[in-house]
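Incident log, structure service

09:12 report received: a user says their structure output differs between two submissions of the same chain.
09:20 pulled the input from the user's history:
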Amino acid sequence: MAADWNDLSGRMATLGHTVHALDLWSYLDHGECDFEDFARRICEEARREDCPPALIGYSLGGRLALHALLEDSRVWSGAVIVSAHPGLQNEEERILRLSNDAEWAGKALTAPWDEFLAQWESQGILQGRCMAPLADRAQLEVRREAVARGFTAWSLGRQADLTALLEAVERPVIWLSGSRDHKFKSLADRVWMQMPDAYQLGPLVAGHRVPWEAPGDFADCVEHLIDLINR
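09:34 re-ran on a clean worker, output below:
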């Protein structure tokens, strides 16, 4: 949810920076929006800014951010990619992920909302302790259809493996992961060197939800990107 970024927004405001948090579900409220459609739309939004904005993406948002960078890296000044998957390399894994995400989509549409949220939050990867607050997911119940579309339209099973394509991104990119999130730390180790102007910071002392489990260190990393852009 866009309100998840309120803590970062406050921290950045004290440094003179403005955070514009996207409502990802708004891209799905009225129908399907695949990775390429999203990338085109968000790049169009970036072109309307007075100067190229920096792009921050976490997890699913990180995967979407990678597509936006590949669509047109020139409209961005740089990016921070957090706990994000570059894409599956095995077809069997793709099929399994598509099936798993289809099940989650069904739960988002039909299950009691509190039960759906409880099942989502019970996943092992999300068991870190958040030091900054997350928005109240109960508010998303009225947008069940958009949430369900997110599981299918933006399933990792539908995403191409972007690893070999990332060398085309000509902007500074910082990769972040949590020290307790071994899977995504390993993915970051494998991918960041594919990009010509990429940096891996950390890992930060956190699990998967880096921006909320280590909010101060995360804000420092964002500020580091801004320093890279302005040097």
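09:41 both user submissions now match this output. Likely a transient worker issue. Closing.
09:42 reviewer note: The chain has one domain: 2-230. The chain has a mean pLDDT of 97.
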